Amino acid sequence: MAINLKELVNSDASLISRRVWSDEAVYQLEKRAIFGKTWLFLGHESQIKSAGDFVQAYMCETPIILARGENGDIHASINSCTHRGLPVCRSDHGNTKRFICPYHNWSYSVDGSLVTIPQERAIKCKPDKRELGLKKVPRVETWRGLIFGSFNEAIEPLEDYLGDMKFYLGAWIDRFPGGIEFIGSPHRWVIDTNWKLPVENQLGDVYHGPHLHASIIAADSEAGIEIDNYAYNVVPTKGHGASFRLMPEDTPTDKIAWGFETPVGQLGSDELKNYLRSVQATAEAQVGPVRARMKGLAYGVYPNLSFLWSNAGFKVSHPRGPNKVEYWSWSVVPADAPEHLKQQLRNNHASFFGPGGLLEQEDSEAWIQQNIGANIDFADDRMLYYGLGLGEETTHPDLPGTVTTGANEYYARAFFQRWREDLLAEVDG
Amino acid sequence: MSALERQYQVEQFYYREARLLDNREYQSWLALIHPEIRYSMPGRSNPMVNNRERGQQDMISVERELEGLDSNGLPIRDENYAILWLRVDRAYKMNSWAENPPARTRRIIGNIEILDDDGDTLQVVSNFHLFYARPGLRDFFYAGQRRDTLIRQDSSFQIRCREIVMDMADINVPTLGLLL
Ligand code: FES
Ligand SMILES: [Fe+2]
């Protein structure tokens, strides 16, 4: 089926077709146009601290081994043997010198080079092992310990790609003098929905909070009132997004410090609270006066990385076809917090987010139900409405990017404008 | 009390608990929960097998797949009474959309084994199979093990500690936020 992109997304992206969320041909095009071309999040350096450490990752549906080599370099290789194609790494994480392919026991080092071919002894013409390593991800770069890979050799440097998104990510990460740490393995769960919906939810869908989650976060709760008064959605570059509250200058520490607004912070020990206060006390020195007043909500980095501020998680929405995602979600803590406080802070994420999360189970529910609506027939002439706040986007002297209020859907329109451009570029080729 | 009587008492306690949960009588269920409860579900990953443990049972122990309880990993759930109370509370709100319509669950508790009993406190493991269906969705199947610390209370028990080990390879169910 030929895809007419202009029929799927209108010019200002205020109308989006259900097919964008459910069509197999659209998905196959997304793979080439987006997942083959952009920077994709792989993991964080704290997951692979020592030589030989590895974790599994994905770039769309392609399995990746992310590893720390002997010399401390980071390597990303496709997890598929050059002989017959089996995955050579069969664990989620670990430390090793070699991956041994099950079928004929070719062995690879963690950096992906082929080390031994056991059958070599029995043949005369020896293959050139240097040519037969695992396929490398051609571009791998890091920023603040966050590791990204790209299949696009010609892509711009990661820092340019992130652009002003660094300002907003740094508002959290740079508060902690020792940076951040990913704790343990990610939660991974399968949801019957399209990969873009979890992304859109975190990119700037501020106003689903007091509605979808009203059984936990009431509209008249403190968070709800702060969102009404102080929330901004910013689009630094189309496809990226940051939503947050910019608190007034005289806000007391406990109303602004990261970690305080969750039950873990609220019910936490004095020691934990004092730690969170101490982070806020140095925030201005670490990130400057404007960013020290930021109390984040959720962010997105194009195409499929999300960050959740108060419950501290990084998430990736890995497509598994047009109607399924494997959602990965890591708990993130300040690297230099005392170990026993990290164990308390990780519960900001567990129990509230993830597959058993008090809050996130409502999101999963909404996403599964959206997928039902995205797969119906006889409604192609009734596009989904993305027009809230159309034309009301503006700027702010302290905030780089296009700025709107929390209820404005420009964040999503900008995402789909970029999405359509990327797909059009691939089709026009 | 004989070992047989004790076994019977513990089994009856678990059957009653299962009935309350399947009947969605969560408020009554809370009465079985000790105020100091630790209720957790470890994360379960697939770590690299340690070559040095070849030939020993430890090499493939279940324990090495679990993370986030006392170790430095991420649990799926790690909850106290207040959080369980929140879960019960939201079950009776119209706008708890993940429970509206509510799920139909049917669980079978089995392999109930008392590992230790010091008079006040019992260590008990049990297995469960749970069928889960919500109108509008597919049906799902859950399997796992519960590792409980029970405290004797009058002629019954309270759950002081529960660790739930889930067995699925991929988490492909609508929620792991159930009361299990
Ligand atoms: S397929 Fe990997 S060694 Fe043959
Ligand atoms: Fe949400």
UniProtKB/TrEMBL annotation, chain A:
Transmembrane segments: none annotated. Residues 40-137 form the Rieske domain. Belongs to the bacterial ring-hydroxylating dioxygenase alpha subunit family. GO terms for molecular function: 2 iron, 2 sulfur cluster binding; dioxygenase activity; iron ion binding. It comes from Litorivivens lipolytica. This is Phenylpropionate dioxygenase-like ring-hydroxylating dioxygenase large terminal subunit. The keyword Thylakoid does not apply. Keywords: 2Fe-2S, Dioxygenase, Iron, Iron-sulfur, Metal-binding, NAD, Oxidoreductase. PANTHER family: 3-PHENYLPROPIONATE_CINNAMIC ACID DIOXYGENASE SUBUNIT ALPHA, CHOLINE MONOOXYGENASE, CHLOROPLASTIC. Pfam families: Rieske, Ring_hydroxyl_A.
Automatic annotation (TrEMBL), chain B:
InterPro entries: NTF2-like_dom_sf, Rng_hydr_dOase-bsu. The keyword Transferase does not apply. It comes from the Bacteria. GO terms for molecular function: dioxygenase activity. Keywords: Aromatic hydrocarbons catabolism, Dioxygenase, Oxidoreductase. Pathway: Aromatic compound metabolism. The keyword Iron does not apply. Gene3D superfamilies: 3.10.450.50. Pfam families: Ring_hydroxyl_B. GO terms for biological process: 3-phenylpropionate catabolic process. Belongs to the bacterial ring-hydroxylating dioxygenase beta subunit family. This is 3-phenylpropionate/cinnamic acid dioxygenase small subunit. It comes from Litorivivens lipolytica.
